Amino acid sequence: MLRKPAAALLRSLASHISGGARATRQPLPPPIVPSILARFLSTPASPSSTPPPSSAAGRDEDGGLPEVSGDAGARLSISVDRSGLYNPPDHSHEPSSDSELVKHLKSIIKFRSGPISVAEYMEEVLTNPQSGFYINRDVFGESGDFITSPEVSQMFGEMIGVWAMCLWEQMGKPAKVNLIELGPGRGTLLADLLRGSAKFIDFTKALNINLVECSPTLQKVQYNTLKCEDEPDGDGKRTVSKLCGAPVCWHASLEQVPSGSPTIVIAHEFYDALPIHQFQKASRGWCEKMVDLAEDSSFRFVLSPQPTASLIYLSKRCKWASSEELDKVEHIEVCPKAMELTEQITDRISADGGGALIIDYGKDGIISDSLQAIRKHKFVDILDDPGSADLSAYVDFASIRHSALEASGDISVHGPITQSQFLGSLGINFRVEALLRNCTEEQAESMRTGYWRLVGDGEAPFWEGPDDQTPIGMGTRYLAMAIVNKKQGTPVPF
């Protein structure tokens, strides 16, 4: 339950939101005896009556040692033993059907003469600078490969805006605050947040917007979604969002975002795309699952024959789990990048103040075997045509909590709670009622469908359309967690 002042603030905000291999050295042959060399130069060698068995055009005929007869007056004959020379297979000039990313992955495995981790495979598939899934395309929305909550309804971004404004008030309404979104997608969430908070001038004037995005393609999409324009700034220029007048900057990683100001971090469906290591229980203990090449040159999963460096992270994760929890699983997924990212967020919040909101699908405990691939809104094989499908895994919220608490004693962790509880407590019910009063019947149907997808559980009971289009609620599948500086108290609505 919310305290009465907080509940009143939420109700007020909801009703005022605006907007509808190494080379081997070969030994040199011994020097030729001078007398033999002189005879060799003055008397032509007679060809061998039988050609060498592996003679090849263009190959050096002096590759072997000369054999000389015992008679000094006899003619010198030379034979070459090529039996120990490498005979390369015939080279095929037929074009390969493999994509550039597939060729790259295969070359890594062949160069190392062994498999790569699932984490390395996942990272190459998603963020390879030339061919990664996220790098050169817009993958979001109906025309993409999957839909996220901000694409479902404007209400999601608006409610995140309510949370951010409440946190800003708990921070003491600082005049400047870094608003950081990790993996902003198309920028839809942030655009709805800014539109919804447009009437709260002091809040929007305080914002410095920082987007952590590695895809040049998506950076351009975000630029347009946020109605950005470049304007003169001293001897240079700066980018400003015309939705609220706040400056906007893009960064490849969180470390590049300037520190020193209070911070609000939003990580919606970001952790699920971080590369994971998979481990499987075997007779010799926990073994890492790897990606290798089969005899037909297709990708396959194998178990590492020896311990891998990432076992240190498995040991760390198991330390946070009970023996009962470990006894129940045959597979464990560990995400070192998630641990490291959480530590970075925590260090920033501890030093500068503020908080972070993490919303993703996952569970508050060990994740077993959740890695999945989605292409054009359908599940596909994880190893099929790498780079053409999104890869993601359940988020281990317990690991995030332990990582944060071990990183600093100046923060507190709250949740996770379900997305349905989170949005409901922030006032989404009030918001949908307000929107339904001023819309057409077609818009109302879209509102009800979007609302159910955000807070519902399972199939929508009111749906009367085609069965294959029944709205599925994400309200209990997605969880919300907050990490905040202890000085600010408990964040709404935890």
Automatic annotation (TrEMBL):
It catalyses: L-arginyl-[protein] + 2 S-adenosyl-L-methionine = N(omega),N(omega)'-dimethyl-L-arginyl-[protein] + 2 S-adenosyl-L-homocysteine + 2 H(+). Its EC number is 2.1.1.320. It is an enzyme of class 2 (transferase). One of its GO terms (molecular function) is protein-arginine omega-N symmetric methyltransferase activity. It is found in: Mitochondrion. It comes from the Eukaryota. GO terms for biological process: methylation; mitochondrial respiratory chain complex I assembly. Keywords: Methyltransferase, Mitochondrion, Transferase, Transit peptide. Residues 40-71 are annotated as: Disordered. InterPro entries: NDUFAF7 (IPR003788), NDUFAF7_sf (IPR038375), SAM-dependent_MTases_sf (IPR029063). Gene3D superfamilies: 3.40.50.12710. One of its GO terms (cellular component) is mitochondrion. Arginine methyltransferase involved in the assembly or stability of mitochondrial NADH:ubiquinone oxidoreductase complex (complex I). Acts by mediating symmetric dimethylation of 'Arg-118' of NDUFS2 after it assembles into the complex I, stabilizing the early intermediate complex. Belongs to the NDUFAF7 family. This is Protein arginine methyltransferase NDUFAF7.
